[in-house]
Design goal:
The protein is an alpha+beta fold. It has two domains: 146 residues, Glycoprotein, Type 4 Pilin (2-Layer Sandwich); 60 residues, no CATH class. The protein contains seven helices and six strands; from the N terminus they run H-H-H-E-E-H-E-E-E-H-H-E-H. Strands 2-1-3-6-4-5 form a six-stranded antiparallel sheet. Strand 1 and strand 2 form a beta hairpin. Helix 1 packs across helix 4. It is elongated.
Length: 227
């Protein structure tokens, strides 16, 4: 499960880069997250039921997956007047040891997304970090064989012996498009193909699910203060 601790760790990787230091460990932020949850439960003990308390504990335990390996994406947004705008997003479909993968793609998304200029230190306070852990990959029976708002999609196709591919994470279609068809048209263009409609292409589509969460810079600062 994607967690706030993972997002905070990505923030610290970025901040450490600008400060010329080593970042704190992922487990440090996981412990801080657990401490914050425990404090919330304890301070609300008179109004939080045993079921709610168990739920908090379960979430905290599920979030601590430091030793697992996952396909993952790190997304940086800049928040302007309360609205997030994409600032960089890069990831991998190859399972990565979690801390190493988050460290790598926190930096790659911040500095090497060719759609954007590298993130600057002065932007930190306006940033929001998102982490997506990917799972349940399935080959679809066709381009429309996926569930809106549930699946991310990865397409690939060949034209004149050249292979094209692109992906949208599960939250992208509902946020930016009105239909599966519009999503596919955009994804074909994202892959770098500017020819005919997606309907004329022999598209192979893989659908997948993801666990995604995000964290603001202010939340990162608050979590780091607990460590």
């Amino acid at each position: 499960m994607a967690s706030k601790a993972q997002c905070a760790f990505c923030f610290d990787v970025l901040v450490a880069h600008f400060e010329g230091r080593s970042s704190l460990s992922l487990v440090s932020f996981e412990r801080a997250e657990s401490a914050a949850i425990s404090e919330l439960v304890n301070s609300s003990s008179s109004s939080v039921s045993s079921v709610d308390t168990a739920s908090f504990t379960k979430v905290a335990a599920a979030n601590h997956k430091t030793h697992g390996s996952y396909p993952l994406f790190v997304t940086w947004n800049v928040v302007v007047r309360g609205q997030p705008r994409l600032r960089g997003c890069i990831g991998t479909f190859e399972a990565q040891p979690l801390e190493r993968g988050l460290r790598t793609y926190a930096q790659t998304a911040a500095f090497d997304d060719t759609r954007f200029n590298p993130i600057l230190a002065k932007e930190l306070s306006s940033l929001e970090c998102g982490v997506s852990l990917l799972m349940d990959f399935e080959e679809a029976s066709g381009p429309l064989d996926w569930e809106w708002g549930v699946h991310g999609i990865r397409i690939s196709f060949h034209v004149s012996a050249r292979r094209y591919s692109a992906t949208y994470l599960p939250d992208v279609p509902p946020e930016h498009f009105d239909s599966k068809e519009q999503t596919l048209e955009s994804l074909v263009h994202k892959a770098g193909y500017s020819g005919a409609s997606w309907r004329t292409l022999s598209i192979k589509l893989v659908r997948y699910k993801g666990s995604t969460t995000s964290l603001s810079y202010a939340e990162y600062v608050a979590m780091k203060a607990i460590i």
